[in-house]
Description:
The complex is a heterodimer of chains A (142) and B (150).
Chain A: H1 3-13, H2 22-34, H3 36-53, H4 63-74, H5 85-113, H6 125-133
Chain B: H1 2-9, H2 12-29, H3 40-62, H4 82-94, H5 98-109, H6 114-121, H7 125-142, H8 144-149
Amino acid sequence: xxxxxxxxxxxxxxxxxxxxxxxxxxxxxxxxxxxxxxxxxxxxxxxxxxxxxxxxxxxxxxxxxxxxxxxxxxxxxxxxxxxxxxxxxxxxxxxxxxxxxxxxxxxxxxxxxxxxxxxxxxxxxxxxxxxxxxxxxxxxxx
Amino acid sequence: xxxxxxxxxxxxxxxxxxxxxxxxxxxxxxxxxxxxxxxxxxxxxxxxxxxxxxxxxxxxxxxxxxxxxxxxxxxxxxxxxxxxxxxxxxxxxxxxxxxxxxxxxxxxxxxxxxxxxxxxxxxxxxxxxxxxxxxxxxxxxxxxxxxxxx
Lengths: 142, 150
């Protein structure tokens, strides 16, 4: 991998290597090891966009939505057929997980949301970039 | 699914309708889904994406000109709170060309791989990469004021 390809990947997939195409992560990581300053600079720039994208709040979970869907499923036209039961169990589990995740996220995000301005100026994108590069022993996860 | 629809459509009510309809469709076609042919998660994304496409197409045919600039909101030099920044990012996402927005939502927020996202969007991985690059550059331009302050 050369610097042009590394820059193109950072431009497209951002500053975290875990979001990069799996097939190119190892060569990207090796490039970053060989050219740490160049890689860090590019990842830092890309990471800034990631940081802003992260400011977009996830939609607030609405329990009424799950109720609506459950009512539809409870209708007589939606009785599971024998061969559909496994997938429908997954759907039910998915709904339950979505409900639980929404509730937990709501509790977790509320204190953060009422805090004052995000410290973009004090945050350290370089640290992010370094984290994104990972330690050598993380190579197995790439 | 709700997050996907919400970010693609920019409307929480419509997003809930899409999530509901996607679940109902998944339930209806469940007998035809076979493990191993497609990941359930990818398949469900496809259902939700198609519903979003339908709604976006309807919008194009019923609405006039789309907005050509984001709502600037409060002036950056007054200091932005997280919620303000989030709204600016949401606005910037909404004025991106639809395909660029889809690419960013699928890869960044839904954390799909490039192969999965490209397949869902019906484009090559190179085309997906191009959409992502252009989308992120457009975001950088749209959020230039916030960048300067940041």
